[in-house]
Amino acid sequence: MNLFLHIPKSAGSTLRYIIKEKYPHSFGVVNWHWTNWKDEIYLKNNYDFNKLSQNKIIYGHFNYGLHEHINEEVKYFTILRDPFKRVQSGYFHILRDSHSAFYREIKNMSFEEYLKSKLILDVDNGQVRRISGVGNEVPFGEITEIHYEKAIQNIEKHFLFVGLTENFNASLFLLSKLMNWKSPYYWTQNKGKNKKAELINPVDQQLVKDINQWDYKLYDYCRNKLDSQLSETDFDEQRFQFRNKLYNISLFPTKVLKKIKSKL
Known about the structure:
The protein is α/β, with parallel strands linked by helices. It has a single domain, classed as Rossmann fold (3-Layer(aba) Sandwich). It is 51% helix and 9% strand. It contains twelve helices and five strands. Helix 7 (126-132) crosses helix 8 and helix 8 (145-158) packs parallel to helix 11. The longest helix is centred in the C-terminal third of the chain and has 27 residues, at 237-263. The protein is globular. The N and C termini lie far apart (38 Å). The model has no long low-confidence stretch (mean pLDDT 90).
């Protein structure tokens, strides 16, 4: 069994769509809103892991460690994103969604105020938190090299693959080979429109870097690993984009029809 650890705001919605297409009758979901963190008691009380174990794949905003509830051999895979872009995307996501947790507290905050508020734990090295498995056990500002090293250890021992949002096509190309998928092409999902991105300045960028130093190190580690894997393939970005465009054209009539039906 494979576990897709969906790190929030990292192109995971597109990959979830792909998973549903590949495993229409054999996927499970373990998920909660990315602004909240859940503990072991919550998992045990809210999910039937005997039933979930019957699937070929499980996805969601969980942490490393979910496999301890599953009576199967598992491998994780995930997609990382540039830490600044990911934190920025989370901020705009909350501003767009009046139903999201902490919307009332954050809606009038500047990005700098959002970062300093410490309201959203995911802002603080959220990628290391999930992959190391510490989740919300470590307070804001207290992620260390120990947690970073644990994340690396987990990746090397228990992850089938780690891709990058900024190199999504290449990541999907490699993942498709590892998962024996016939086609790596996709219909893009949930692409946010951050219309206020130009308001964020270098001071904000440095603040994100100061808060997320271990996420930056993890991202660099996985980027080098991905580059090494790609060097051993015949991946061509332009060819992939062309074929993916053809795939989207072929799907367009079906997508339009579904959208019309949903409004009837």
